[in-house]
Each structure stands twice: as C-alpha cells, then as structure tokens.
Amino acid sequence: MMLAPVYKKYYARTYSSDEDAGSDESGSSSQSSSDPVASAARWSSTSTSSSGSSSDESLSEKDLELASLKAAFVLEFGETVHVTEDAWVHSLYGWVVSQEQLEEFFESDSSGYKLDKAGNGRWRGLQEAPRHWQYDLCIRFSSVIARIVNTLNRPLEGMTREIVNSSRVDRLSDELKGRCPDISIKATGPSLEAPETSDEYAPGVGYSNVASVIDVSFDQGGDNAEEAAQHAAYCRQIFLAQPNRNFTRSLIATPDGVRLIHYDRSGVYLTPYFDIHQHPYTFIRVVLGLSSNVEEVLGLDSTVQWSIDESTGKRTHGTIISSVDANYQPIIYNLKANEAPFVRPGICGRGTTCWHAYDPVTGQRVLIKDTWRASSKRPEAEFLEAAKGIPGVVQMIAFQDWLAETKDYRPEGFGGKDFESRTKSRVVLEHYGLSIEHFTSRFQVISAIRDALEGHRKLLRKFVLHRNVAIENILFGPPGAPVGSRGILIDLDLAIWTSTPSSELQDHWRTGDRRFQSLAVLRSVGLECSPIPTFLDDLEAFFYVLAHIILLFTRPGVRNEYVDKILSRWDHDSPKDVASSKIGFVADGWCTSRWWGKASEDLIRGFQRIIRSIHVEKSPITHSTYDLHKRRDLLEAVGKETAVEDWYAKVLKLFDDALLAIDREDREAAELAQTPPAETLGNASASFSDEQDAPTTSQRNFKRRLDGSHPDAPTPKRSNAPPEPGRI
User: Spans of biased composition, class Low complexity (predicted)?
Assistant: First the structure.
C-alpha cells in the first residue's frame, strides 16, 4: 500500500465551507483544527513506526503521513468509524455467481484453492509470501484475484475487467505514486473513460477507469480510522473522475483475510476482517461484486451513459435521463461532451454534481443538478417551485426525486442515531452565464449583484430564505438579459421556509460558505439555543459578496494579493476567529482601486454602514448576561422593528444610485474617447493609465478610507510601516 499525499490545502478549503461536510453532521467537535498537518501530532501517538516507538522523533515519514491523513479524515467523517456485524459481509453479492459455478471452480486445479489432508482449504501462495516483501504479496494476490475474475465474472458486451498490480510505479512522478493503490481493477464500459497520461498512476490506469481498488498488507487489526483514511484518498478521486458514482467499495487484503470499505455521501463503514481460507465463497462473491460488469453493482448511476470511442477509450457523447414527460416516458437529455461536469469536492455531504446538457425538444442548453440531501431536509425542488417566475432567481424546468438512498447500501438498522440517510434527487434548470467573479465591467457585475438581491427579496416574499449567498451562487444572466435578470441567484438546496421552527434548525446551523457567513451565524456555533437565521444574515452575505468583488479585484481578473490573503483566512479558521476578523473588516477602512471609481466606492461605503448598524445593535445583546433563551429572542427581534421591505429598499437604492453614476461615467468616457485631443495639450491627456481607465472627477484620488467605528473593534494600533497594498 502506498499512502496518499497530505491534502492540507484541499481539506482546509473544502470542509469548512460545506454545511453537510466536516464536523457539521459527522459528530466531530466544532473546535477541531482545520489543519490536518497541525492535527497530525495529536494522532501520531496512535501510529507506531517500524521500530515500535510512538514518539514524534522516531516516527517514520510514512507514519507521520498516515497520522496526517487520519487527522484530515476525522475532519470530514468524525472520529467514529462504523464497523458492521460479522455476518453481514457474507450476505453480500449472493446472486453474482451460482453454487454450481463455485463448485466447478474449486474442482479445477487452476482455482489456486487447495485442501490439505485434514480437509482445511487455503488459497495457495498467499501465506507463503516472504514476510515484509510487499511487492511479492501483491503479485500473489493479483494472481488469485485475476483467476477469480477471468473465470467467473459474467461477460457483457463493451465491458472488460483487468487486474493490474499497481504497487510498483517507478516511472511515475512522486505525487502520482502517492495516490497509488496496490491492486487496481481496470475497467471499460459506458461510465468509464481512459485517463489522460498525466492522470495515470500506473500505465493505462487512472481513477477514471477503475471499478475498484485493493490495498495489500501483511497484518490485520490496524486502527479503523487509519485504514479508512488510506482509502478515502482513493475513493475521493474515484468520485471526482467518475461523476455518476453513487458509492465506492474497496478492499484491504492480508494473507489470512480481507475487509471491505464502503464510501458514499453519508460517510464510511467497514466490515470486520473475515478469513478468506475458511470462507472462500464469500471472498469470491466480494471480488466479483467489486469487479462486476453490471454498473449499478459497482455503485454507478446507469441513468447517465456515454458512448466510448474504442480506439481512444474517450467519451464521445452521452445522455442523462431526468424526469418523465406528459405520457410518463423518460426524457433523455444530451450531455455536452466537451464540457466536464462540476463535481463538489469531498465525499460526505451533498455531493453536488452539475451536468451540462441540451433539451431534446428545444435544443436549448440546460443544467442538470444531482444532489444528496439529508433525510431531515426538504428537497430543493420545493423552493424552486416557489421561485417560479421570479426574475433574478434560478428557474426549474423539471424535477426527479428518490433516485437512490444511502440507507439501501447498508445493513438494516445501521448506525443507530448517528446515521442519517441521504436521498439523491435531480433537477433540470435553465442555463445561465458564468459566476460574477468573471466580470468584465463595473456596470455588468454591480447590476448582476443588484438583480440577484432583488430576486432574493422577492423570494423572501414567498417565505423562502436562501441561506447560501456566495460569489459562486450568483451567475450572470443570459446575454441581453433585461433589468431584473442580469444576475441570477442559484443553489436553493440549503434554503428554508421562514416559518421553520428553530428546533428543526439546531442541527444545521452551519450553512453555506464560511467566507460569506454573517457574524450572527458564526457566533451561533455550538450554542444550545442559537437564534434562527433571518434575512439580515443573507443581506450581510451580499455585503461580503460585494466586498469580494470591489475590494479583492483591482480590475477584471486582477486580484489584490493583500486583500486575498486576508479573505482566505475566512475559509478555514475557527468560527470564533472568522467572526473576530469580520468585526474588524466591517469596522475598518478599506480602499477601492481607481479602476472602480467613486460610484463603486460610495456603494460599498453605504452598504458597509448598513451592515455595521446591524452589528452595533446585535453586539450588546451577544455580550449580555441574559439567559440563552432571552438572548436568542432579542437577537431574533433585531430588524423586525423596521419593515423588511425598508431594509431591501435602502440597499437597492445604493445599487441603483451607483449604476446611474457608473452609466454616466461610462458615457462620458466614451464621448471623451471620441473627441480628438486639443493640439495644445499634446499627448498629456490622451489616455488614462491602467489604474485610471475609469473617468475621474477633478483628478480625484479614489483611494479613500471607508470611515466608521464598531462597538467590538479593537483600539487601532499605530504603525510607521508603509500602507499595506490595497489599504490607506
């Protein structure tokens, strides 16, 4: 077995921003460090080096890496790893091979399974492997598994299975070696594609064309979390490379026994090791299940199918079935073959996958979105139905529910109260443009945010609170979109009805992307009696979206590195630290680059004052000595004394005023560009510099400080250092 690399940056970015991932629903502490490398020391005491020592100094590089993998694993799945009952694994895959076929196989000399004089059977060669000679053991196991697959696997047209010993990959880069399982079941079929050469971890083998993977070890009885963590790296890559995966299963094999590891959107479980010599039938059934030519058995969703070019192994075109027509016939959408689907990183959680497709009747582009919702949550389609006809909010074309459930992949009664099943659903949505961070002009991006905000207000009128406002969830409308549809608010799968009682929200306080969470949401972490989210939390999220656009970008496609560094801390710090940072951010004075102009600066200054007023009203309550229930009631009452429409009206007026000013500035700039320069001026005023291509008024310097104070802001520190980039 070759350990996967430490995905430090990956884990930090992924599992602090998805309300269904990390510690949120897995039971791990919200105070856990989000840095697996920093956490590794905490776990290294359970990892023993080859010399038997558990001290940090004597731990091998392999042990340290394993400890880091385990720490990262705990961030996503929690500290408890479920193990099934002994008997359950023997009930799996009973139909893949008949009793007659099994008996015929064992009667053959080529089976490799022999009985001794006492009548005890064993797989020849496995127990004779030289101790600690890992590669030799991999060869022997590969041979045994290949005999089983080649003899008993049921053939199907267009399907092939090949057992590859991938434990020795000297020709590949160190990074790819680190992601290499010992044995791979290489596969072809309508859901599998030959990898790019750069993605191969063994010649001709990558995560896009494996049915399953197997790690080989000499010993059993390892730590459950460590063994699960090893395979999390493999299975995560399989989910990304095979986007229609519902689950993955893999094996850890020793000379005496094997155990199965299962991953899906509800998490992970393991079976106990079972003796493959005493239970050869079970061993064969498990191997055939993991190498099956039936894609559903492998965990693949067969409603998504591709045509494969036999000469290249690449996908040429594909289809996806979603919903039914008026005659209850399935509607088959054509996939856009040259545009890869979006797949949310990580395993546990919503598992969002977005397919680019075409409507079979109209030929119009559509987006087909697959998600796995927790059983306690309502389907996104409920809120999309409420959003029908609202400009500025994503529009649903069709919906299909109950495509799969994770509870069906487990023993009955599995996990008790700790387990929550997830249900797969599919929605067909209208297609829109790119996210707003791909803006090309001031007017374009500010009008998009403005229309998404207006859509949010109208959605609230339908008693729906979005709760996941973020840059990536605001898209540009189609070309030539009218006012109201220039920006589209998407992703309603975390939405709630405004009448939802707080008792139903206690387990789901962490919603959306940490970067855009409100101060109140961040402060509610871990509270037994936390206030329910309100429209003010979403308004604050819109402010952070605007700040990310106007302050993070000095112009289209160019980021302010200093501001980027500040905002990136919000991805992975603890909620308490992020809250403290945002207090200072809202209270502080931040500059806009000259490219944005006075109108943009006035917009963010005005929006900042509104958000600051919310903080000013809530902060004394947060720090009060009231009991939890009264504090919650007071916090929920903030903003209610003012009509909801008035809050939106104030913010929208800021946007409308800014857009009028920007439009005027742009028209003046266009007129100036068409006017020949006066001869007396020469070239002095012929053009603006890169930082001055937005027209200025009286040569005004727009790098002005956003003024104001905050009740929680620390006393400013004096510094003789020059201003940081992007600040004054």
Answer: 24-57
Domains, the chain, in order of start with CATH, read 1-79 (no CATH), 81-302 (no CATH), 315-431 (3.30.200.20), 512-673+687-715+722-728 (no CATH)
Which residue is listed with tokens 């992020």? 578
- The region that residue 156 occupies, defined by phi over 0 for left and psi between -120 and 50 for alpha, beta otherwise, is beta
pLDDT in tens, 215-235: 999 888 778 888 998 899 899
For β-strands 274-275 and 267-270, DSSP reports them as: unpaired
Give the pLDDT mean for 369-386.
95
**Residue labelled with tokens 């399935």:** 330
Q: List, in order, residues 6 or more apart from 275 with CB less than 8 Å away.
A: 256, 257
Evaluate whether 224 touches 81 at the Cβ level (below 8 Å). Answer: yes
What does DSSP say about strands 396-405 and 422-430: parallel, antiparallel, or unpaired?
antiparallel
| Confidence at residue 171, expressed as pLDDT on a 0 to 100 scale | 47
Q: b vs e for 343-381, b when ≥16 Cβ sit within 10 Å of the residue's Cβ?
A: bbbbbbbbbbbbbbbebeeeeeebbbbbbbbbeebebbb
| pLDDT (0 to 100) of residue 41 | 40
Confirm if 34 and 366 have CB atoms less than 8 A apart: no
**For residues 639-651, average pLDDT:** 84
Kindly tell me if the per-residue pLDDT of 46 is higher than 70: no
DSSP per position, 131-196 = TT-HHHHHHHHHHHHHHHHHHHSPP-TT-EEEEEE-S--TTS-HHHHTT--SEEEEEEBTTB-PPP
Most confident of 69-78, 645-654, 697-706: 645-654
pLDDT tens-place string over residues 412-422: 888 777 789 99
Nearest to 631 by CA among 530, 710, 534, 507: 530
Q: Which residues pair with 274 in a beta bridge?
A: 258
pLDDT at 687: 36
Helices (H), 380-524: 380-386, 442-461, 519-523
- DSSP for 455-490 reads HHHHHHHTTEE-----GGGEEE-STTPPTT-SEEE-
